[in-house]
Design a protein that fits this description.
By secondary structure, this protein is α+β, with helices and mostly antiparallel strands. It contains four helices and ten strands, in the order H-E-E-E-H-E-E-H-E-E-E-E-H-E. A hairpin with a 2-residue loop joins strand 8 (about 120-135) and strand 9.
């Protein structure tokens, strides 16, 4: 009887651990801005990203436990001149030095979530679609820099990069995050 009970408890423990969600690597963050009339994409990431997330048997609980903090000065586009142009204008405000994110809603049926982004002391809810593939949760959405009370910073950026952008910079930015899990 004891062996049977032990086997049942062990089986239940293995089944629940199979369905558990746990971070398995580092969070990936990607942004894509646009320039020129043809809306040419320019992508990058950030080098200083901190993620706090708790393991859970439930996907929604796992994702909603996350809290991300990004230092905007760590922006990385693989072009030092571009990095400086963006960080010295767009993220020049003292209140835009840190970007924070947390997930407030997850709809597993629709494969959608709501990411709350805080930048320049403004909080915006960003709808995102996600997919799960190869042990990764990949979510994509769009923000508008102007929604974060950053018009003066954006205008300074557009002016500084005018010649490089053929005098056309866009304020919408595609965002993506990748959470590796096991």
């Amino acid at each position: 009887m004891k062996k049977t009970l032990f086997a049942i408890v062990l089986s239940l423990g293995l089944i629940s651990s199979i369905n558990a969600y746990e971070l398995n690597g580092e969070l990936g963050v990607k942004w894509t801005g646009y320039k020129t009339e043809k809306k040419a994409p320019v992508s990058g990431t950030f080098n200083d990203i901190k993620l706090d997330i708790k393991s859970s048997d439930d996907l929604s609980t796992f994702l909603k436990s996350s809290m991300v903090t990004i230092k905007s000065s760590s922006l990385e586009s693989k072009n030092p001149g571009r990095n400086l142009n963006i960080t010295s204008t767009l993220f020049s405000l003292a209140t835009a030095k840190i970007i924070e994110g947390s997930i407030s809603e997850v709809n597993e049926m629709k494969k959608s979530l709501t990411l709350n982004v805080t930048m320049n002391k403004v909080i915006k809810s960003v709808p995102m679609a996600y997919e799960m593939t190869d042990g990764k949760i990949i979510a994509k959405g769009v923000i508008d820099i102007l929604d974060f009370d950053m018009k003066s910073s954006f205008m300074a950026f557009a002016k500084k990069c005018g010649a490089l952008h053929q005098n056309k910079s866009f304020s919408d930015v595609a965002i993506e995050f990748i959470v590796p899990y096991k």
